[in-house]
Amino acid sequence: DALPISMADEVSFVEGQAEDAQGIVQLIQKLESETTSIEFDDAISKLSLEQIGENLNLIQQSPLNFLLIAKLGETPIGIVTLIETDEVKHRAELGVGVLKDYWHNGIGTMLVDEALYWAKQFSWLEQVWLAVLDNNQYAIQIYQNLGFQTKTPPTMDGQGRQIIKMELSLT
Q1: Residues 6+ apart with CB under 8 A from 1
Q2: pLDDT in tens, 42-52
Q3: Predicted TM-score (pTM) of this structure
Q4: Minimal CA–CA distance to 155: which of 144, 147, 163?
Q5: CA terminus-to-terminus distance, the chain
Q6: CA angle at residue 114 from 89 to 33, to 5 degrees?
Q7: Coil vs helix vs strand at 3
Q8: Which residues have a Cβ under 8 Å from the Cβ of 133 and sit 6 or more positions away?
Q9: Tens digits of residue pLDDT in 101-131
Q10: Is the separation of the CB atoms in 53 and 67 below 8 Å?
Protein backbone atom coordinates (compact mmCIF):
# COMPACT_ATOMS: atom_id res chain seq x y z
CA ASP A 1 0.00 0.00 0.00
CA ALA A 2 1.01 3.61 -0.50
CA LEU A 3 2.94 5.31 2.24
CA PRO A 4 1.12 8.43 3.39
CA ILE A 5 3.29 11.50 3.12
CA SER A 6 2.82 13.69 6.15
CA MET A 7 3.05 17.45 6.09
CA ALA A 8 6.41 17.11 7.85
CA ASP A 9 7.80 15.25 4.84
CA GLU A 10 9.37 17.67 2.43
CA VAL A 11 8.60 16.85 -1.20
CA SER A 12 10.42 19.25 -3.49
CA PHE A 13 10.23 19.61 -7.24
CA VAL A 14 13.49 20.41 -9.03
CA GLU A 15 14.66 20.45 -12.62
CA GLY A 16 17.09 17.60 -13.19
CA GLN A 17 20.72 18.69 -13.19
CA ALA A 18 24.00 16.88 -13.86
CA GLU A 19 24.46 16.03 -10.17
CA ASP A 20 21.07 14.26 -10.21
CA ALA A 21 22.19 11.75 -12.88
CA GLN A 22 22.80 8.84 -10.48
CA GLY A 23 19.53 9.40 -8.62
CA ILE A 24 17.58 9.63 -11.87
CA VAL A 25 19.10 6.39 -13.19
CA GLN A 26 18.21 4.61 -9.94
CA LEU A 27 14.68 6.06 -10.03
CA ILE A 28 14.17 4.91 -13.64
CA GLN A 29 15.44 1.41 -12.82
CA LYS A 30 13.08 1.16 -9.84
CA LEU A 31 10.10 2.52 -11.84
CA GLU A 32 10.71 -0.01 -14.61
CA SER A 33 10.85 -2.85 -12.07
CA GLU A 34 7.63 -1.76 -10.33
CA THR A 35 5.30 -1.36 -13.28
CA THR A 36 4.94 -2.35 -16.92
CA SER A 37 3.06 0.84 -17.76
CA ILE A 38 6.26 2.92 -18.00
CA GLU A 39 8.85 2.54 -20.71
CA PHE A 40 12.03 4.57 -20.86
CA ASP A 41 14.35 4.82 -23.84
CA ASP A 42 16.80 1.91 -23.78
CA ALA A 43 19.56 4.35 -24.79
CA ILE A 44 19.63 5.63 -21.19
CA SER A 45 21.16 2.37 -19.97
CA LYS A 46 23.97 2.69 -22.51
CA LEU A 47 25.03 6.17 -21.36
CA SER A 48 27.60 6.97 -18.70
CA LEU A 49 26.55 9.11 -15.74
CA GLU A 50 28.66 11.90 -17.24
CA GLN A 51 26.74 11.66 -20.54
CA ILE A 52 23.43 11.63 -18.69
CA GLY A 53 24.54 14.72 -16.75
CA GLU A 54 25.44 16.48 -20.01
CA ASN A 55 22.00 15.59 -21.41
CA LEU A 56 20.32 16.96 -18.29
CA ASN A 57 22.17 20.25 -18.77
CA LEU A 58 21.08 20.36 -22.43
CA ILE A 59 17.46 19.67 -21.46
CA GLN A 60 17.55 22.62 -19.05
CA GLN A 61 18.57 24.94 -21.91
CA SER A 62 16.02 23.56 -24.38
CA PRO A 63 12.77 25.40 -25.24
CA LEU A 64 11.22 22.07 -26.31
CA ASN A 65 12.32 19.56 -23.62
CA PHE A 66 11.77 19.48 -19.86
CA LEU A 67 12.61 17.17 -16.95
CA LEU A 68 11.44 17.64 -13.37
CA ILE A 69 12.09 15.40 -10.39
CA ALA A 70 10.03 15.02 -7.22
CA LYS A 71 12.34 14.45 -4.26
CA LEU A 72 11.53 13.34 -0.74
CA GLY A 73 14.46 14.84 1.09
CA GLU A 74 17.31 14.13 -1.33
CA THR A 75 15.78 10.93 -2.76
CA PRO A 76 14.06 11.11 -6.18
CA ILE A 77 10.59 9.53 -5.95
CA GLY A 78 9.00 10.79 -9.18
CA ILE A 79 9.83 12.21 -12.58
CA VAL A 80 8.10 13.98 -15.45
CA THR A 81 9.53 14.60 -18.89
CA LEU A 82 8.50 16.51 -21.98
CA ILE A 83 10.49 15.22 -24.94
CA GLU A 84 10.15 16.86 -28.34
CA THR A 85 8.77 14.43 -30.92
CA ASP A 86 8.02 16.76 -33.84
CA GLU A 87 10.25 19.76 -34.43
CA VAL A 88 8.03 21.18 -37.18
CA LYS A 89 4.77 21.02 -35.24
CA HIS A 90 6.38 21.76 -31.85
CA ARG A 91 4.94 18.59 -30.27
CA ALA A 92 6.32 16.81 -27.22
CA GLU A 93 5.51 13.56 -25.46
CA LEU A 94 4.75 13.72 -21.77
CA GLY A 95 5.98 10.92 -19.55
CA VAL A 96 5.49 10.66 -15.80
CA GLY A 97 6.32 8.11 -13.16
CA VAL A 98 6.06 7.97 -9.37
CA LEU A 99 7.39 5.17 -7.18
CA LYS A 100 4.57 2.86 -6.10
CA ASP A 101 5.11 3.61 -2.39
CA TYR A 102 4.09 7.23 -3.08
CA TRP A 103 1.09 6.73 -5.38
CA HIS A 104 -2.15 8.58 -4.55
CA ASN A 105 -0.41 11.46 -2.75
CA GLY A 106 -0.89 13.93 -5.64
CA ILE A 107 2.77 13.80 -6.68
CA GLY A 108 2.07 12.64 -10.25
CA THR A 109 -0.57 15.32 -10.69
CA MET A 110 1.82 17.99 -9.36
CA LEU A 111 4.60 16.82 -11.69
CA VAL A 112 2.32 16.92 -14.75
CA ASP A 113 0.86 20.27 -13.69
CA GLU A 114 4.37 21.77 -13.33
CA ALA A 115 5.42 20.38 -16.73
CA LEU A 116 2.32 21.87 -18.38
CA TYR A 117 2.94 25.22 -16.67
CA TRP A 118 6.49 25.23 -18.06
CA ALA A 119 5.19 24.21 -21.51
CA LYS A 120 2.62 27.03 -21.58
CA GLN A 121 4.80 29.76 -20.07
CA PHE A 122 8.36 29.09 -21.21
CA SER A 123 8.48 26.61 -24.11
CA TRP A 124 7.96 26.82 -27.84
CA LEU A 125 5.66 23.81 -27.66
CA GLU A 126 2.21 23.96 -29.24
CA GLN A 127 0.98 20.51 -28.27
CA VAL A 128 1.70 17.85 -25.64
CA TRP A 129 0.66 14.23 -26.10
CA LEU A 130 0.94 11.04 -24.09
CA ALA A 131 0.16 7.35 -24.30
CA VAL A 132 -1.56 5.59 -21.40
CA LEU A 133 -2.81 2.04 -20.87
CA ASP A 134 -6.60 1.97 -21.20
CA ASN A 135 -6.95 0.13 -17.87
CA ASN A 136 -5.14 2.91 -15.98
CA GLN A 137 -8.35 4.78 -15.23
CA TYR A 138 -6.78 6.72 -12.36
CA ALA A 139 -4.17 8.27 -14.67
CA ILE A 140 -6.68 8.85 -17.47
CA GLN A 141 -8.92 10.78 -15.05
CA ILE A 142 -5.99 12.96 -13.96
CA TYR A 143 -5.04 13.70 -17.58
CA GLN A 144 -8.66 14.56 -18.45
CA ASN A 145 -8.87 16.87 -15.43
CA LEU A 146 -5.75 18.64 -16.72
CA GLY A 147 -7.35 19.17 -20.14
CA PHE A 148 -6.03 16.22 -22.18
CA GLN A 149 -8.42 14.75 -24.74
CA THR A 150 -8.54 11.44 -26.58
CA LYS A 151 -8.49 12.08 -30.34
CA THR A 152 -8.19 8.57 -31.78
CA PRO A 153 -9.48 5.09 -30.91
CA PRO A 154 -7.20 2.95 -28.70
CA THR A 155 -4.45 1.00 -30.44
CA MET A 156 -2.75 -2.26 -29.52
CA ASP A 157 0.90 -2.23 -28.43
CA GLY A 158 3.46 -4.97 -29.05
CA GLN A 159 2.41 -6.70 -25.82
CA GLY A 160 -1.28 -6.86 -26.74
CA ARG A 161 -2.31 -4.02 -24.43
CA GLN A 162 -4.78 -1.28 -25.37
CA ILE A 163 -3.07 2.12 -25.54
CA ILE A 164 -4.93 5.44 -25.50
CA LYS A 165 -3.25 8.50 -26.97
CA MET A 166 -4.26 11.78 -25.39
CA GLU A 167 -3.43 15.31 -26.52
CA LEU A 168 -3.44 18.81 -25.11
CA SER A 169 -3.21 21.90 -27.29
CA LEU A 170 -1.21 24.74 -25.74
CA THR A 171 -2.15 27.40 -28.30
Answers
A1: none
A2: 666 677 777 77
A3: 0.85
A4: 163
A5: 39
A6: 90
A7: coil
A8: 37, 161, 162, 163, 164
A9: 999 899 999 999 999 999 999 999 999 999 9
A10: no
